[in-house]
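User: I'm putting together notes for a lab meeting next week and I want to include a structural view of one of the chains we've been expressing. I don't have a solved structure, so I'd like a prediction I can at least talk through. The sequence is below, exactly as it appears in our construct file.
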Amino acid sequence: MRAETPILRWDKSTSIPDSRGSYASGVINGQLIIAGGTYWEGTKGNWIKKIYTPVVHAFDPMKEQWHKLPDAPSPFAYTASVVINNKLFVMGGFSGQQINSNIYTLERQSGKYIWKHFGAMPANRLFAGAVVVGTSIYLLGGTEQFEPYDPSGTCCTSRTAVRTLLTLDTAEAKPHWRSLAPFPGSPRWLFALQTDDESLWMFGGAYQEKVSDPITRIPEVWRYHLATDRWEQVGAVPAEAIEASPLVPVRFGSSILLASYKKKVWVFDCKTQKWSETTPLPEEVFVDKFFLVDGLIVGAGGENRLDGPRRRSDWTFIGHVNGNGSNK
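Assistant: Thanks for the context. Below is the predicted structure for the 328-residue chain, given as structure tokens.
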């Protein structure tokens, strides 16, 4: 039986206080956390320098209010991030000066949010994909270096893209990373990664060796079976979705919603592997992450397509599922 395609009504909610993209994010105690990220100094048509920030904010989708949390231990962007048991894990990325080799955590203790150092990364990783199954983190791909087009920080080629799949069980007394079957396809970045707790699902991606090379967009869909440590290719992303990529995935039951840079939102049914469309976003923007929070689909910030490259968005979106018009 095919899963129901969710019908969404999107609202624009309270603006994020500091517009930024490329942040770490997750949901802690029903709050959307946005940590770090980048923005540009300058004005439209004259963005001159990319800034990396340690600023952290939380958004309450029920009250539609933002509030500031303690800054991260250092600026970072292009990290991988997940939440396990109300603890945000921030892994790798770039500080603006050097590759971040640390894993940081953020959690709420005794009414206060506290940052801690969890450990070291197993290798340099920027733009990696990360998901959680149980208490285990799965870290896929990424690049080994920050490869900007120019000295101002315009992003990025992907010559150092890797195909590794690593896992870390955070419940172990002494957690350590293990290597799983590497991704067998061609190197890529900007893929969408999500899980249905049985498999990892990898959608699309892109590759660019040199600044002068055209960007190769890759439409493949790959499935990694957790039980057998095996990859298989299972079709392709619709051509219109690849043209609107990068795609941002959020799990919804047995389906995965994929929001695009050009407003359109697709639904992939993990059981039937069929595609459908649902209600588009109200604006063209590359929101870095969307999350399901108490039945609402919530995301904020990112790169504003309407005002051109480098412009960071202050929009916050709330998606009401299947006609639900209330946050209460």
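A couple of points you could mention at the meeting. The two ends are 31 Å apart (CA to CA). The CA atoms of residues 262 and 284 lie 5 Å apart.

User: Perfect, that's what I needed.
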